[in-house]
């Protein structure tokens, strides 16, 4: 079974942007230019004025914006 960490890494590489909702309800945007996949399960997100380290196992769900 593929981990959330691996699905996010693969999806971000393919699409360039992924939205995530953390278990606590906070939503974050992941872009190829502001995300580093560190040692699993940790993801570093460099937002404009904050840096977040997210445990991928604590992501409630994620989605991709796609134009129809």
Task: Explain what this protein looks like in three dimensions.
There is one protein chain. The chain has 1 helix and 6 strands, in the order αββββββ. The protein has a single domain, classed as SH3 type barrels (Roll), CATH 2.30.30.100. It starts with a helix and ends in a 5-residue tail after the last strand. The mean pLDDT is 93. It is globular. With 68 residues, it is an alpha+beta fold. Strands 2-1-6 form a 3-stranded antiparallel sheet, covered by helices on one side. It has a 3-stranded antiparallel sheet with strand order 3-4-5, with no helix packed on it.
What tags apply to this protein structure?
68 residues, alpha+beta, SH3 type barrels, 3-stranded antiparallel sheet, 1 helix, 6 strands, 18% helix
The CATH topology turns out to be: SH3 type barrels
Largest sheet: 3 strands, antiparallel
Based on helices, strands and strand pairing, what is the structural class?
alpha+beta
For the biggest β-sheet, the strand order reads 2-1-6
Which percent range fits the helix content?
A: 10-25%
Treating each run of at least 4 consecutive H or I residues as one helix, how many helices?
A: 1
Mean pLDDT value = 93
Note poorly predicted spans: none
CATH class: Mainly Beta
């Amino acid at each position: 079974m593929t981990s959330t960490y691996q699905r996010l890494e693969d999806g971000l590489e393919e699409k360039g942007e992924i939205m995530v909702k953390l278990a606590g309800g906070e939503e974050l945007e992941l872009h190829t230019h502001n995300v580093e996949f560190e040692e699993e399960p940790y993801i570093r997100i460099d937002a404009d004025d904050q840096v977040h380290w997210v445990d991928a196992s604590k992501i409630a769900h994620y989605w991709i914006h796609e134009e129809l």
